[in-house]
From TrEMBL:
Provenance organism: Olivibacter oleidegradans
Residue intervals of the CusB-like beta-barrel domain: 210-285
Protein name: Efflux RND transporter periplasmic adaptor subunit
PANTHER family xref list: MULTIDRUG RESISTANCE PROTEIN MDTA, SLR1207 PROTEIN
Biased composition (Polar residues): 370-379
Membrane listed as a keyword: yes
Chain segments annotated as transmembrane: 6-24
Keywords: Membrane, Transmembrane, Transmembrane helix
Location of the Multidrug resistance protein MdtA-like barrel-sandwich hybrid domain: 59-196
Entry keyword Oxidoreductase: no
Length: 390
């Protein structure tokens, strides 16, 4: 092997040794970079989401107490009705016949009563002068009293028959709007066991309520008067306002999920909300405006002593170590844990009521670096160097 080849091989070996040292032989220099933020001022709220159904505040089911055939209907869907307005009428023929029959029975009973009264008066006078026996007088008295009782009984039957006749006319019990009409002319309705519903009336559809189903895990946070917003599919870009007016105690269980009906009052002055619409509800159980907040991630961050390297210095704070809520603060080159008092938590940010100020740098994340690159990466000169954040 000539001298020239030996020199070339030596140079190649030296270059290989330099490259091996550069990639694998150098001691990795580790450092830290902090991601920080400052407390921001703004609104924060704790919310509960649910779904519900739009319903009128007061709905009345109008039915009939007697059976019969619908002879006439005087209203229809969406019609405005007044209290006492005639809505429908059943065929009164049979009811009228019953009234007429009882009137005939009453006339007959009244005639018999009049005869028995005259006979009783005559028998009493004869008995007083001793012209008849006590048995004959008692018989006259019994006939008179029986006739009187018969008249009273038939009068009661007549009042019942007349009342049933009046029930063939269906009147509106309230001022309102007809939501539903369940019958048509010629239809037979039977009121033998329960009252059939003929009409459903809403008292005032300018005021609506949302019947929301709130999960048992959330119902403890809901209070009367809580502010509510909701949307409906018909007006997806519009947000409606309301407030909690009632929390019903009767639970509802579906698929092993227990919910409680929560009533939310809302205005419907523009008549956009219609009965039966599905509402997506947001209940604001707690809310505040113009308060300091920090990310929830800042409270969950943990920093071990070995993670803080020069030029940064870890400062011990034993009081903060035992605090229920604390954040890490970066002040100059000092890193220390600071106890804070928290308020509302919306799972993204948390309200700070004390412990840090608006200008404090709150550490939200710590990034270990080596030669400007993350610790778990080699110091490859061909990879870009990430920017150091403080």
């Amino acid at each position: 092997m000539n001298r020239k080849k030996i020199i070339i091989i030596g140079i190649l070996i030296l270059m290989l040794a330099v490259l091996l040292y550069f990639f694998f032989g150098r001691k990795k220099e580790n450092g830290v970079a902090f991601e920080t933020t400052v407390p921001e001022k703004g609104p924060i709220a704790s919310i509960i989401t649910s779904t519900g159904t739009i319903q009128p505040v007061d709905t009345v089911a109008v039915g009939t107490q007697v059976s019969g055939i619908i002879a006439s209907i005087y209203t229809d869907y969406n019609a405005q009705v007044k209290k006492g307005q005639l809505l429908a009428e059943l065929d009164p023929t049979l009811m009228q016949a019953t009234v007429d029959q009882i009137k005939g029975q009453l006339a007959q009973a009244q005639s018999n009563f009049n005869y028995q009264q005259i006979n009783f008066n005559r028998q009493r006078e004869l008995f007083q002068v001793g012209a008849i026996s006590k048995a004959t007088y008692d018989l006259a008295t019994n006939s008179y009293e029986t006739a009187q009782a018969s008249v009273n009984s038939i009068k009661a039957q007549l009042r019942s028959a007349q009342q049933n006749l009046s029930f063939t006319k269906i009147y509106s019990p309230i001022d309102g709007v007809v939501l539903n009409r369940s019958v048509s002319v010629g239809q037979t309705v039977a009121a033998s066991f329960n009252t059939p519903t003929l009409f459903s009336l809403a008292k005032d559809i300018t005021k609506m309520q949302v019947q929301a189903k709130v999960d048992e895990a959330d119902i403890g946070d809901v209070q009367m008067g809580d502010r509510v917003t909701f949307t409906v599919d018909a007006y997806i870009d519009q947000t409606f306002e309301g407030k909690v007016s009632e929390i019903r105690l009767q639970p509802s269980t579906s698929n092993n999920v227990v919910t409680y009906t929560t009533i939310i009052e809302t205005s419907n002055a523009d008549m956009k909300l219609k009965p039966g619409m599905t509402a997506t509800v947001t209940i604001y159980t707690k809310e505040a405006s113009n308060v300091l907040t920090v990310p929830v991630s800042a409270l969950k961050l943990t920093i071990e002593p070995g993670q803080v390297t020069p030029p940064y210095r870890l400062i011990e704070n034993q009081a903060a170590d035992t605090a229920q809520n604390a954040v890490w603060v970066l002040k100059g080159n000092q890193v220390f844990r600071q106890a804070i008092k928290v308020g509302i938590n919306d799972n993204t940010k948390v309200q700070v009521e004390g412990g840090v100020g608006a200008k404090d740098s709150i550490i939200t994340a710590i990034v270990s670096t080596g030669q400007g690159t993350p610790e778990n990466m080699g110091s490859n000169p061909f990879l870009p160097t990430p920017r150091r954040r403080r």
